Amino acid sequence: MCSGPQRRSERRILVIGIYLADKENLASQITRELALSSNWDVEQQWFSLGKSQPDSNLAPFTVQVTDTFSPKFLLLNQLLGRIDLHEFEYVIVSDDDIQLPAGFVDRYLALVSCYDLALAQPARTHDSYIDHWFVEQLDGIDARRTRFVEIGPLFSLHRSAFDHFLPFDEASPMGWGNDFVWPVLAEKHGLRMGIVDAVPVAHNFRKPVAYYDHGASAKHMSKYLAERPHLSKKDAFFILESHVG
Amino acid sequence: MLSVVICTYNRAALLDKVLDSLCKQTLPAHDFEVVIINDGSVDSTEAVAAFYAAKLPLRYVYQRNAGLASAKNHGLFACKGDVVLFLDDDDIATETLLEEHVKTHTEFPAEHFAVLGYTALSPDINEDPLMHFVTEIGCFLFSYPSLKHGDALDYTYFWGGRSSCKRSLLLEFGVFNPVFRFGAEDIELGYRLSRLGLQVIYNKNAVSYTIRKIDFDAFCHRLERQGASSYVCSQLHPAPEIQQWAGTANSEQSWAMIGGHFDAIIRSARHLDSMVNLKLATGLDLDEETRSLLYRAYWAAFKACKIKGIMEKRKC
Questions:
Q1: Is B168 an 8 Å CB contact of chain A?
Q2: pLDDT tens, A106-153?
Q3: What is the mean pLDDT of residues B78-90?
Q4: Which of B9, B33, B61 should be substituted to probe chain A, the one whose Cβ sees the most A Cβ atoms within 10 Å?
Q5: Per-residue 3-state assignment (H helix, E strand, C coil) for chain B
Q6: What is the ipTM of this complex?
């Protein structure tokens, strides 16, 4: 059984993300919700990608701006390069097109902490776009220890994982395939991965890969995976342990 | 490896018999595993599972009650087999059940082939008029009479509790829709998989026996729930074949005709059912005229219950 919400102390978390400034996005709502945490001191650093200027809601959180397209994980590495990560208990990486439930940070991290998940993600709601069925919310449980955490739309890393996962591997700049390599890395270092079902996020605002060449990315992913140890889908989409509070 | 996924809710006594039957399989124990999803039971399900954990390669997982579709998905993700058999918690396996499923999958190794086994009534409920009616005459529970061994069937035969499929097919192309807490979750998934070529091979030698006698009122309730689920399925998939399968197309007209008489239809069938059971319990035979009357009453009552379920869901 997990204990109740943790007290705010000196514990800090870092949120990094990228928003598409010229496209409709939910970054304002996301940053607002994330800032509402009662239990954590949340620092947010977002990258604006596009020609439009950050609006007044996002400006305080926007630390870098570019109008030249660059892959997601290269931009995330640029953000991470500016920051001393040792100050933070968790890093949360977020896309700009998700809807977070109220109290997301406190509820999500309470379960992540409780089950000692060094690499984790919230499940996707049933009405989300689903790339992998495995990450859709399972209704009867709070969380599960898994061998798979996907590269988006939101995932978290505990400080115990920083040295092994950060900076992100730029051999897959869009991140394709990382989620099948991460479990190998996590298991090598004795880190637990998991999905939090009790605090799912809705990912139905923009269709995934709508702005990318899906065929090319699949080809790149195959090549990327062929060159490094990784899990098959059969092995990755497996629940090691189910948690009910 | 074959994974047997059993989702269960408050049926510890029946589960005990199901697990006992799995201890006697001709398929070697190292070639299968049993995954039990306890869907929020408050009885001794956990203790039963613990007892068999020493006898079977068994994994026990608990979840809060979330319904059959969610439980099946949980089982799918908690199992390791290349093939997954969804077995009901009130169906006991014959000794060769698992071997027969494996045999057919070996014969049909392509991912899009599923296997349907045969479920009969256990001898102690075989003579029950209602159980006989719903399996052999009205086919409200199973519909085997028209099937032949080796038939390649469509998605409407992807019946939960007695079908197996490749785990990879579901992982890649679709899982059960958790909106379905009871009924229609199997056919709805089968329909989606049919677009990818799902075919269901019938193996009459893959035999299980259903051991739970369902009484008249319980079966009425079951059909109302199935009607509701069928309606939900028909709303998800507007294709005419699904509307036909769900029986929703003429439900409004049908309800207009029978709705006012629903209580009388049920009462009449219930009285007849009680009378027949009393007769049988006292050792009397059932004459053909009474049997025919009873079946007509069952037919009318169960059709009415399904339509009622559809109409009530439609109103929601």
A1: yes
A2: 999 999 999 999 999 999 999 999 989 999 999 999 999 999 999 999
A3: 98
A4: B61
A5: CEEEEEEECCCHHHHHHHHHHHCCCCCCHHHEEEEEEEECCCCCHHHHHHHHHCCCCEEEEEECCCCHHHHHHHHHHHCCCCEEEEECCCEEECCCHHHHHHHHHHHCCCCCEEEEEEEEECHHHCCCHHHHHHHHHCCCCCCCCCCCCCCEECHHHCCCCEEEEEHHHHHHHCCCCCCCCCCCHHHHHHHHHHCCCCEEEEEEEEEEEECCCCCHHHHHHHHHHHHHHHHHHHHHCCCHHHHHHHCCCCHHHHHHHHHHHHHHHHHHHHHHHHHHHHHHHCCCCCCHHHHHHHHHHHHHHHHHHHHHHHHHHHHC
A6: 0.94
